[in-house]
């Protein structure tokens, strides 16, 4: 698909510099661009490419200096990343087949299950009994949807997803391949002989609206009641959410993080990759947990940044790290002082 600079300028409400008839046919990273490429620059780490890269159309801020010999047209906006996101949404809507509908012959739908218009069910998927499925729902191949599951309108469930009995998924959700929703929580009672007795996990998982769940992420069902993923939550790949966790609205969690049982996470919390939060904690709204942190106690201050293992105030943690960097030199000085004392 080809598009001209002047068309993009209208679409993005951008100030156009250079040749308005410049055409591009692909999206490219700035370091891999050529004359047929549309690129955007928002990260200062890559600004130097504006002087060296050959680009068809460059989306940038209002002040970026670029080499006009290599850039055929530039689109200036106040927020390049926001404009690029708008463009990517348009591109996705044109390239993704969101109008796909129909039920493949190699599927199974249980009794008393209902679904609405524009439903799609891919080959080798199974939908259990008493399931309620909204309109425009897409369930791709090899999925398992258990009994009494509810799925809201416009939700997309990609291949190889498992949703266990009694779980609820809201509207406009995206669940990526390999995710498991509603598997048993890790509940075992130690016995006098050293063995473990399984504690039945009788609850479910409730996923709100506009939630995205990454590939191979697992969300355990509650022991009693519900594990809750509230509206707007965004989960990366390979995340573990344990039983009875409550994730607040618009919280984002990066890959390989884990939240232990019965922990309550506030709204708009950001959790970095490989971070861990132990069980039965309360994390206030807006808290920022740095990557690889180990949170072992409540965080009650809204908007606080924490880091380290165990996690402490992020600024304090950075000061400690800076001090540790000086330890080799300090040890060397101590050794020298000890030698001088012995010589005396």
Structure description:
This protein is of the alpha/beta class and 344 residues long. It folds into two domains: 3-95, Udp-n-acetylmuramoylalanyl-d-glutamate--2,6- Diaminopimelate Ligase, Chain: A, domain 1, CATH 3.40.1390.10; 102-317, Hexapeptide repeat proteins (UDP N-Acetylglucosamine Acyltransferase, domain 1), CATH 2.160.10.10. It is built from five helices and 40 strands. The strands form six sheets. Strands 8-11-14-17-20-25-28-31-34-37-39-40 form a twelve-stranded mixed beta sheet, covered by helices on one side. A ten-stranded parallel beta sheet has the order 9-12-15-18-21-26-29-32-35-38, with no helix packed on it. A hairpin with a 5-residue loop joins strand 22 and strand 23. 35% of the residues are buried. The mean pLDDT is 96.
Set out the fold topology.
Elements: E1 3-4, H1 5-12, E2 15-18, E3 23-24, E4 26-27, E5 37-40, H2 49-52, E6 55-60, E7 71-76, H3 80-95, E8 102-103, E9 108-109, E10 114-115, E11 120-121, E12 126-127, E13 132-133, E14 138-139, E15 144-145, E16 150-151, E17 156-157, E18 162-163, E19 168-169, E20 174-175, E21 180-183, E22 188-190, E23 196-198, E24 204-207, E25 212-213, E26 218-220, E27 226-229, E28 234-235, E29 240-241, E30 246-247, E31 252-253, E32 258-259, E33 264-265, E34 270-271, E35 276-277, E36 282-283, E37 288-289, E38 294-295, E39 305-307, E40 312-313, H4 314-325, H5 327-343
Parallel strand pairs: 4-5, 5-6, 6-7, 8-11, 9-12, 10-13, 11-14, 12-15, 13-16, 14-17, 15-18, 16-19, 17-20, 18-21, 19-24, 20-25, 21-26, 24-27, 25-28, 26-29, 27-30, 28-31, 29-32, 30-33, 31-34, 32-35, 33-36, 34-37, 35-38, 37-39
Antiparallel strand pairs: 1-3, 2-7, 22-23, 39-40
